[in-house]
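User: If you would, consider this record:
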Amino acid sequence: MPATASGGARPEEEEEEVSPAPSPSTSASACMGTRAEELTARLAATGPRPGAGRGAAAAGGEEVEHERVRALREIKNQIIGNRTKKLLYLRLGAVPSVVAALAEPGASPAALVQAAAAAGSFACGVDDGARAVLAAGAVGHLTRLLAHPDEKVVDASARALRMIYQSRLAPKFDVNSGENVDFVLSLLDSENENVTELAAAIVSHSCESSAEQLSLCSAGVPQKLVSLFGCSMNLRDACLGSIIAVIQNNQDVASRFASTDHGKGFRSVVGLIHDRSPRTRLLACLCLIALGHASPDHFQDNQIKTKLIMVLLELIEEPGHVGDEAPLALTTLIKDSFELQRQALTTNAVEKLSSHLLANPLGTRRAVTILLALSELCSKLEESRSQLMSVEVSTLLLEALKHDWADIRVAACSCLKNISRSPKILSGGRLSCDTVIGPLVQLLNDSSTSVQVAALGAICNIAINLTPRKSVLLHSGVVSQLVHLSKSMDPMLRLKSVCALRNIMFLLSPKDKDFIVKELTLSTLSSLICDSEHFVQEQTLALVHNLVDGYVVSANYVIGEDGMVMDAIARQLNNASAPGVCIQVDFLQKY
């Protein structure tokens, strides 16, 4: 899945099982209790003893096997959905004993089912659990058990493997190997939906490079995934997620998918944006968005694009994950597209998103994604910016700048960055420069680098669109903060702070330029011209260009101080290789 919106992973599915009443012969061991330490010890005691034959259990035979099943079941019931219990059992070293049960050739189907469920649960949602399960060799044992004659064992093993492959720590499956691709295809051909869903999970997890995408496409995996759309909702959604992974950012694969079988796969996905399941509709939208970005030539139907916008706006009303991610999917769809942003505006997207924003608590994932969608809608259209400027939304944006959650502060800065493209809005009203610059300057000291970068982006736009009233910025204390950040170890902070200084410097009076130079110092300016990052060099040279532009006296800054700045520019003239740096040096040579 992209770092944008995702369909999300299903939670652990197994329900807690009630252990059967103990027989008289086992009542004593049942009385040992269910404390974690005791359960871990009981499970370890049921494993093979050193020196015993391969597959031989500890003395007691059938009774010991019953005890192992009970211990595994009780551990599984305690850890499902309980992070605290998982961490406790991890500290006690229970995972190796759980996985050892999977490796036992003589283990009963009941023990294998419970061990597989426990192993999958340990790996689900807890990185330390996934590490322990992987280190114990669970993947190999569970993969082998997919061929077990007992269908319940196959089900449990497939579910456990799917949970493991949801972890970012799980090993990638080498889909460049023909043998491995054949194995994935065999899983997709299984009549067991848990197994086919596992295959989809493997594809999603192991399909990152263009070569891997092409390998799966050439083997016909996308078409096979489409053929499974008629199965259960969970499997259909898993297949949609896998198709997204296969076509993501790959023009060749996306084109093949869209044109194979006269566009059958493409039409099938389009049909799913009308599905009854909100999650399926979201995934179908994400699939079409990925296809459109990878291969625009195969996605030119404006009716489908408009329908996508409408479906995503409807999905924002859904509870939970779907409603949270729908605005982010909309953001991805309309990003950098004047045409699609105009279409979104005609469907009242700004009004609908604003209403949802005001109706939801500010400190939620949904508020973050709605703010990001509104930000994108305001990136190109003045009409969208004007529509957004109600008193309620303006007040909320100012509150968001001071929110405890960094993601909210970042999203609010992003929104203000694009709203501030409007000089009219900056000149008056609730979000005028006088109102927003103070909170933004405070965010330059934020503990989160992401917030600092986002605040700098907003200040950059305010500076360039507030040319007649730069005094507001100069008296806000922003210059000293920008100078401080220009010396940061973080290259992005250096870049953004220099960009902001460049924009503030544009068309300033000699007096105001002198104020900035005194804050910055020619020594710092010279150092930034020779920064280790070429994009910082380029923006610093643009800053120098704005410094000397317009007034003859300004040239003294470059030739003064023993020619320190001039020497730095000369070094770049001789050494620069980045095109942007060379262009800026050429500009300066004209002065």
